[in-house]
Request: fold
Amino acid sequence: MNTRISIAGVYPEHEHRCSECRLGEYCFPHNLPPLETDELDHALRISRPLQAGEPLYRIAEPVRAIYAVREGSFKTVALDSEGYEQVVSFHLPGEVFGLEGMYAGSQQCDAIALQNSRVCILPYKGVLQLSHSASRFTERMFQLFSKDHMNHLRLLGNYSAEERLAAFFIGLAERIEPRGQAASDITLPMSRGDIANYLRLAGETLSRALARFQRQDLIQINNRELRFLDLERLRHMGRRVPPYVL
Reply:
């Protein structure tokens, strides 16, 4: 477990003590028994920095690990039968991803850094070993699989552009707030094109919805700087969309 490994072009620099991380409560399990904590700490590695636009892994690569965002953010992108990109998810600090490939044994999405980013890496062999020896870890893995599945289903309903955008903003505010950034002011890590793609909206439709939100004094937005002016009204607008599972 302590040998140097290479995972999808990301070269770990040193061991990471998950038990001492400020984001630990959001991703891999904390409050494990001491022996299980040591196993997790020895299995985890920290990646080298990835630049904005750089892939962490690509579709069809073997699943070598699961990942937790340590710094920055990522998007996972699938391709349809004609080769068009579909944004599947955005991943913020403390969130785990790479789970979607574990059934098939190969990655089902590209994972692309949205800004300068790093991840914590839990090699697949470490996942298997901990699943056998650490019951709390196994429970957490089931929780993460379930959370991932529920969040993928959120926007499948017949919702309006305003409902989709309001629910997206509320989910984003709630995901960022526990991680130390005020929910009322956000620097969007993703482009408007990525947001439109994720919400299954045309770019023009998203632009019109943003303009309406500004006229209604719900938000202020300047490039990627976003300020929420009335979270409660936004929450009411997006109430039909299932909430993001934190």
